[in-house]
Amino acid sequence: xxxxxxxxxxxxxxxxxxxxxxxxxxxxxxxxxxxxxxxxxxxxxxxxxxxxxxxxxxxxxxxxxxxxxxxxxxxxxxxxxxxxxxxxxxxxxxxxxxxxxxxxxxxxxxxxxxxxxxxxxxxxxxxxxxxxxxxxxxxxxxxxxxxxxxxxxxxxxxxxxxxxxxxxxxxxxxxxxxxxxxxxxxxxxxxxxxxxxxxxxxxxxxxxxxxxxxxxxxxxxxxxxxxxxxxxxxxxxxxxxxxxxxxxxxxxxxxxxxxxxxxxxxxxxxxxxxxxxxxxxxxxxxxxxxxxxxxxxxxxxxxxxxxxxxxxxxxxxxxxxxxxxxxxxxxxxxxxxxxxxxxxxxxxxxxxxxxxxxxxxxxxxxxxxxxxxxxxxxxxxxxxxxxxx
Length: 389
Hints:
The strands form three sheets. A five-stranded mixed β-sheet has the order 1-2-8-5-3, with helices on one face. It is globular. By secondary structure, it is α+β, with helices and mostly antiparallel strands. 51% of the residues lie in helices and 11% in strands. It contains 14 helices and ten strands.
């Protein structure tokens, strides 16, 4: 097992990362058209991506350009640019520091308060799913766990959860989603509840409703839906690797390394991190002017053979002494890393301990992923399980 296992994940990702290798350095930085934002650069090189994410003075947040990538052109809404409000990951400077500090405090407090309930929810979802014998791990495990986190942490109801999930996978316009969230936030401000969003408004009352809505969207999309994809991507990897199943059942000390390797090899994030050049720069072989949109090809960077030995092999014994870019890097790294790792580890632990074996009911090449450039999320994951006891 120390040499890793050759398994299939997402066909297009597997093909891109293997075909590039070190023999094709030109593919490390690629010119791409990004909606009405114009031409930007897709960065597939781990070293360049890590450098960009670490240098917030040269490579800033891309709020203004991001809006034109995912929504209609600004000219179709004459006042839209002046009305735009961005989440913490799309801002820099003092606003970023103030909101990030507040979010960090309320997230840490809320996770401590509800961690036992979240773990119980995970256990319940796993037990209910395993009782089926044959199941879709997306619908029966990933989605219920994500829903419980959105409910217990953020206080979101089923309709909002559905709208958020549609935004991730079906291109629901950000502007419309934020309008829906603003109405919900206004109600929460008038009637605080026992949830993280109410905590945030109490911690930082100067935040406008639109700012709270934007950050609620960020936490739900980049945190919770990523968690659902991470868990199901992990099950997909393990379903093709009976040896690792047995190893982790026998030695739970391998579990953190397993979660870390799933994050690297089967990253739930595809091209979900964006930056913008604040000043002229050189990236790869390109001289880049200020105001250029940069897209980090996270999943490709995570398989960069210059950064990871045997990068194209799934190897949970790789340990944790390496840096994947799934959750970003530096000041703009994901705020939900601790809770994501906690819940993913609990889900995979419960799934492995509740089974003696499991596998796919279809060929890996038949699996479908959602057609989005932002995430690697399965449409469904049909599996069979043999339950323990």
